Amino acid sequence: MRVLDITFAVIGIILLLPIMLVISVLIKFTSNGSVTFHHKRVGRHCRTFNCLKFRSMVTGADRIGSYMTAKNDSRITPFGSFLRKYSLDELPQLFNVLLGHMSLVGPRPDTPMQLDIYSEEEKELRHSIRPGITGLAQVRARHVATNKNRLRYDLFYVRKQSVALYFWIIYKTIVNLITKESY
Question: Would you say residue 34 has pLDDT above 80?
Fold first, then answer.
């Protein structure tokens, strides 16, 4: 599936580059700070990497509140709210896919702090593949799934991954973005 990831990431970057440039300019004009946000995430074999996102929060948001964002979080910029609504803040992760840190489809990457919620067996299995920009938990129950349900979806994907499931998740992600299902 690595070939599919690279192919779709290159196509996505080429097609979305004008949008990413406009987003970059708008972030720069609407708030102080950098355009992108880099945060430590856990990837394949529990190796950490810098996950890229467009910055959607005020500079220093991690020092203002919890690492988890809440609904109507005051740290989210007005433009950042728009980016998050349409998942546009995730577009720079296409570069993470090219670098081999991520896949288009897989379990969402954990923060290092989240590793404590898994048993050793769960942690090893969940991190046996690259994390994804989208995944089964996102298309099934993005904002309503408990950690236990997300883990169930993630482990199901790891065990049953196939080209057909990969394309189905991409299809459902696009449908969900357009119709706002599960969002």
Answer: yes
